[in-house]
Structures are given as structure tokens and as C-alpha cells.
Design a protein that fits this description.
The protein is of the alpha/beta class. The chain folds into 3 domains: about 10-340, TIM Barrel (Alpha-Beta Barrel); about 345-555, 3-Layer(aba) Sandwich (Rossmann fold); about 560-655, Immunoglobulin-like, CATH 2.60.40. It is about 25% helix and about 25% strand. Strands 11-10-12-13-20-19-18-15-16 form a 9-stranded mixed β-sheet. It has an 8-stranded parallel β-sheet with strand order 5-4-3-2-1-8-7-6. The protein has a 6-stranded antiparallel β-sheet with strand order 9-22-23-31-27-28.
């Protein structure tokens, strides 16, 4: 890719999934009006459609998949590209991959066959997408379409391939290919492994196709699980994190995933949408405070911004939608001098367990993100390939698989004086009866026979904790300290587990007495917590689990980079831009106002928030961007202390 390529910061992902029953496609489309609407909304890139999930094409072609409702002679895609370019706006092209209704209806033998013998289809009376098998001739069908698009619009700004997950299939094509390659179609593991192999192969094939045609084009394969960028990054020029908070992703998905995605030296962006709910929510506009938060969050993590929309079939942008988007993007544009070429400043490396989930964060990963963010800690997701020396503390959360490579790197990290927090099953054998890490400061005695136990905090980690036995809703492991290790908290076991044989009261049985087992142990700079505390926070919102983590980390990292008073809901990031350090502070209240929907309708300002930041040199000045308002500050012991006068949604505090 061209060395001077910069990912546009204010993008629109313009869906145009338009069924064949709509007969006036592009009827009111006026290229100049279309592009000027984007320009007025401060947009600098629009991803526009060559081919939608219905399998229809929106350019002038002899291919039978051309949308039947688009009048003869209308080349909508060409009109969009030319008009956008005339306004200085980039125009990458969208191509749907595994969703193609036209191909599915024309060639039903190309549809994925599930293990239950049914095709991946909503059925003859269902309204939904049929999924295509990339082991079938459909892949060549798609390839030929892509070739035509690349030739017609050469050179393209970029190609956005969508619906590209690993899709197992037991079609005749899939079975034949698996057998030829030594896979057993009867084994689910083999089917999944083969599906991944198919994805890698077609991404490699299509990436080469695009770049051979347009060497400077961007290429992205969407709907990937974002857990294998070490390998898949070779087939993408940027990382795009689709995360519509009210569309099923939730408000924790983006901050959970971006801390991994930003570590591969590639431009990255966050993608939300203007919709109240999810894609194609015509007439659904989210409140402005929600869109402001979502774009602020992208800025705060160093990501470019993308807002999704769906163009009306007649080709006219929705005026209200672009008033909303324009308001948000005007704010982004104003802050861009403090967003360019920034790098995150982090001191904790958080390990994630491998996950094939594309949409849902959930469980341990989400819980860890919640806890660390609420505690203002600055962290990135680490892997066995990461440079661990850049972190002051590593966290191996709940159930991290240990490879020989990772264990060797952890051993080396400890020898250099690094601190580590291990929780839950990490570092233990499958049955929990043995340690897999020589330096883990506990002897393991298996999983607790009690589903629910309690924690009694010791004095070293009792700060801010009520003097009682705190319930932990998840099963612990029974551990005792090794020689020289200190017990920080003790497990208190109940009289018995609640069951049909004996129960007492409505929920878990009351605590009985302290057990000989430890809940938390510390030896030097190594700590172990016997519960899956991060999953516990994600699943139960358990404050005791959060406090356990908070106070143990305080022993391992006593002088954190950023210290901030105020509500735990303040989200913070620290970014470096040359000699500048920029602290982003965000406070937006997402409330559960509908079933399954967290909504933001108000921006509630926070006054006078004390803050302290570790800096090796005294700054010349501290100010709020973009207003330039200077702030008084003190400097001692390599820390800057000040009062942030107000946090109104999103503030940027700049240390020059």
C-alpha cells in the first residue's frame, strides 16, 4: 500500500441492501446532491455498494444480477464515485461475500449445508439471508464479479468484503474437499478447521486480486472474529471494528476489541451507526449524545471513525440522518490536530483467551475491560507474540491457555522483575490439582466442591471493603500458599451446597466458617486469585470481585500512570503525540431503558474532578483541547496534579 495512505477519519458505511421487489431503485439519485450532502456532513470517505446481500449489482453491467429495479442506463455506483471524488471524498467499494440471494436462488446447490442436513437458509417462508458455500463454484462466481468491478472502476480506492466468517459446510463440495485434504467431515473440529482454511485461502486470493489491479487500494474482510490478526493482518490494509452498541454488540465490545486491534501497526477504525437499533433501521435515529459518545470513544482510543447508514432505495440521503452525523463529525474534525499519529500509553498487558466470537465480547474479556477501565488503568491486550517488557504488570485472566512459548516468555519477564496477576483456572491443570507454573505461589487442591463460597478480605487488601464475608457466585479452586507466600484473603465455605437434598433460604446457603484455603495469595510480585473474578464481574456485576482485583493490583502497581477521582463510570485513555501527552476523559451515562438496549439520551456534566498523571518531566503547560483553556497544575515526585474543571461528555487534557 502507498506509504502515505492515511485512513480517513470521518467515514460513512453506506449500506444499500435492496431487494428485487423494489422497482424504483435510484429513481431520485442525483450525484452532485448526494456528494454535497456528504461534504456538508464533514464526511471524508463513503463506502458505497457494488453488490449487496441480495446479490444485486448497482452499476452498468450485462451480468444478470444487476438490480431489476434500477432503470436501464443508470450506473449508480459510477455516479457516486465520480461525484464523491469531485468533492475530495474517498469512495471504497462494498462487495457482499457469503450472503448472495441472487446466487442462492439461481444455484441452490451452492448454499451451505449444516450438520443437521438443512441448508443455511431461513426456509421458503422466512425473510432472511441464505449463506453461500465458499467451497462451491460460488467462489469463482464471486471472483468473476470482483474482476469486473475492479476493471470497470480501476483504480479503486478500496474494497470492503463483507460477511466473511469461517463457515463450516457439509455440502457435496465441502465434503469432497475435506476428504481430499485429509479432514473427517464427521468431526466438528475438522469441519471448523477446514472452514478456517477456506477463509484464509479466499482472503489471500481476493487480496492479491485487488492489489494486483489497484496497488494502492485498501482491502478489508469484515465479520472476522478479530482474534488472529497475526496471521490475517497479511490480507488487510486496515482493521475495522464493527460495533453498533444498540445493534447487538453492546457498549463494551469496542473498548474490549480495540485494545487488541491497535497493536499490529495497521490503521484501525471503529464503526457504529446512526440507527436506533441495528442495520437498516429505517426511520431510527439514535440520540445525539449516544453518537457523540461513540465517536468520542473512537477518538480516545486512537481510531478513525465510521458511522453506518442505509441509503433509501431511491438514492437520496436522509436529511435528518446527515444533520445528526454532521454534528458529530464537525466535532471530530475540530479535534483532529490532537488525534493524528497518536500512540497509546499503557502499563498493563491483559491476556485474552482465544475466541471465535465476532459480535459478543462477554465473559472474562468484557469483565476485565470493565474492571480495569473503571479503575483508570491503562492497558492493552497482550499475546504470546507481544513485547512483554513494555508492561509493568501482566494479567492472565481466568482461563488463559499456556503454550511453551508463552511460559518461556513469562519466565523471562519475571526474571526481569515484572509483576503478574493470575486468576481462576489459569496456570492450573485441567482438574485443578496441580500448578503448571513453577513460580505460581500456590499449591492446588482441585476445584471447590461448593458452587458458591465467600471471601474474607485480609487487612492488606481491605481498603474500601465492608467488614463481612463477601459472596462469590462462581466456583473457586482450592489452593494453599507456597513457602514464603502471603495469604491476602481467605475462602469461607457454606454449610452445604443448595440442592434438592438440603437447602436453606432462597439462594446460596449462608457462610459457615473460614476454610484452610486461600482466596488470594501474594509472593513478591506474583499474585494469584482463586476465582474467575473477571467473568464474575461480567456475569454478576459483583463489587466484591472488583474490589478484590482493585486491591491486589494496588500491591503490584502502587503508582499507576493515571489517577482520577470521580464516578467509576468515567472512561479514560492516555495517548502520546510526539512530545504531547493527551488524556481523554469520557463520562456518558448508558442506561437500560428498554429490553436489551442501553441508551444514552443525556450528557451529564461532572464538575471539578481531581486528576494526577505520571510524567518524567514537568510540562510547560496543560490545557483543554480544542478550546485551549489553560489549567493550573502542580508537579512533584514525577507526577502532574490538577483539577479538571468540568467533564462534559468528552474532554481532552493536553500536557505540552
Amino acid at each position: 500500500m502507498a506509504k502515505n495512505f492515511i485512513l480517513p477519519t470521518r467515514q460513512i458505511h453506506l449500506d444499500f441492501h435492496t431487494g428485487p421487489s423494489i422497482g424504483d431503485v435510484g429513481r431520485d439519485f442525483k450525484p452532485k446532491q448526494f456528494a454535497r450532502a456528504m461534504k456538508a456532513a464533514h464526511v471524508n470517505s463513503v463506502t458505497i455498494f457494488a453488490k449487496c446481500h441480495h446479490g444485486h449489482l448497482y452499476y452498468e453491467t450485462k451480468h444478470p444480477a444487476r438490480h431489476p429495479g434500477m432503470k436501464k442506463g443508470l450506473d449508480m455506483l459510477a455516479g457516486q464515485i465520480d461525484a464523491l471524488h469531485a468533492e475530495g471524498i474517498r469512495a471504497p467499494i462494498y462487495i457482499s461475500v457469503q450472503c448472495d440471494e441472487f446466487a442462492a436462488d439461481t444455484h441452490p446447490e451452492w448454499i451451505v449445508m449444516n450438520a443437521d442436513g438443512k441448508q443455511a437458509s431461513p426456509g421458503p417462508l422466512g425473510a432472511g439471508w441464505q449463506i453461500m458455500d465458499m467451497s462451491s463454484p460460488y467462489q469463482d462466481f464471486l471472483y468473476d464479479q470482483t474482476v469486473e468491478i475492479l476493471k470497470k472502476f480501476k483504480p479503486v480506492d478500496g474494497i470492503f468484503f463483507d460477511m466473511c466468517w469461517d463457515q463450516p459446510s457439509l455440502s457435496n463440495y465441502g465434503i469432497d474437499a475435506m476428504l481430499k485434504q485429509g479432514f473427517d467431515p464427521e468431526k466438528e473440529g475438522d469441519r471448523n478447521t477446514y472452514a478456517r482454511k477456506v477463509s484464509i485461502a479466499y482472503m489471500k486470493r481476493f487480496f492479491k486480486l485487488v492489489r494486483d489491479s489497484s496497488p494502492d487500494a485498501s482491502v478489508h474482510f469484515n465479520s472476522r472474529p478479530l482474534n488472529n490478526l497475526e496471521e490475517e493482518g497479511k490480507f488487510a490494509t486496515q482493521v475495522e471494528i464493527e460495533a453498533l452498541p444498540t445493534g447487538g454488540w453492546g457498549y463494551m465490545y469496542f473498548p474490549t476489541r480495540v485494545r487488541y486491534a491497535r497493536n499490529f501497526g495497521k490503521p484501525y477504525l471503529g464503526m457504529t451507526a446512526r440507527f436506533h437499533k441495528s442495520w437498516s433501521d429505517f426511520g431510527g435515529l439514535k440520540p445525539y449524545p449516544a453518537l457523540e459518545f461513540e465517536t468520542s470513544q473512537m477518538m480516545a482510543y486512537g481510531a478513525a471513525c465510521s458511522i453506518g447508514d442505509q441509503l433509501h432505495p431511491r438514492g437520496v440521503p436522509d436529511v435528518a440522518a446527515y444533520e445528526l452525523i454532521g454534528k458529530a463529525y464537525a466535532r471530530v474534525a475540530e479535534r483532529e490536530p490532537w488525534l493524528e499519529n497518536v500512540k497509546p500509553v499503557t502499563e498493563i498487558g491483559l491476556f485474552h483467551a482465544p475466541s471465535n466470537s465476532y459480535m459478543l465480547a462477554g465473559g472474562t474479556d468484557e469483565g476485565a475491560t470493565r474492571i480495569l477501565a473503571q479503575l483508570r488503568h491503562q492497558f492493552d491486550v497482550a499475546t504470546e507474540d507481544s513485547n512483554l517488557d513494555r508492561f509493568k504488570l501482566l494479567i492472565l485472566a481466568d482461563a488463559i491457555p499456556l503454550t511453551d512459548k508463552l511460559v518461556a516468555k513469562l519466565d523471562a519477564y519475571i526474571k526481569k522483575g515484572g509483576a503478574i496477576l493470575v486468576t481462576g483456572k489459569t496456570g492450573l491443570s485441567d482438574d485443578g490439582t496441580a500448578s503448571q507454573l513453577d513460580w505460581l505461589p500456590v499449591k492446588a487442591h482441585g476445584a471447590s466442591p461448593f458452587a458458591t463460597t465467600f471471601v474474607r478480605f485480609g487487612k492488606d487488601i481491605a481498603a474500601g471493603v465492608s467488614d463481612t464475608d463477601h459472596v462469590m457466585y462462581d466456583r473457586s479452586f482450592r489452593v494453599t500458599p507456597t513457602a514464603g507466600a502471603k495469604v491476602l484473603a481467605t475462602v469461607v465455605e457454606p454449610y452445604f451446597d443448595r440442592s434438592w437434598r438440603h437447602f436453606s433460604g432462597h439462594n446460596q446457603t449462608a457462610p459457615d466458617k473460614a476454610s484452610p484455603y486461600a482466596a488470594a495469595v501474594l509472593k513478591g510480585k506474583i499474585a494469584y486469585i482463586a476465582y474467575p473474578v473477571f467473568a464474575s464481574v461480567a456475569n454478576h456485576g459483583n463489587l466484591a470481585a472488583k474490589m478484590l482485583v482493585k486491591n491486589v493490583i494496588a500491591l503490584l502497581l502502587p503508582d499507576p500512570l493515571l489517577q482520577l477521582e470521580g464516578p467509576s463510570g468515567i472512561e479514560s485513555t492516555v495517548m502520546r503525540q510526539g512530545s504531547r501527552t493527551i488524556v481523554h476523559l469520557m463520562y456518558y451515562c448508558a442506561e437500560r431503558r428498554a429490553t436489551g438496549l442501553d441508551l444514552i439520551e443525556d450528557i451529564i456534566p461532572l464538575p471539578a474532578t481531581p486528576m494526577s498523571l505520571a510524567l518524567s518531566k514537568k510540562p510547560k503547560k496543560v490545557y483543554v483541547a480544542p478550546s485551549g483553556r489553560e489549567l493550573e497544575f502542580g508537579y512533584s515526585d514525577a507526577r502532574v496534579s490538577l483539577i479538571v474543571p468540568e467533564i462534559r461528555g468528552h474532554e481532552m487534557i493536553v500536557f505540552e
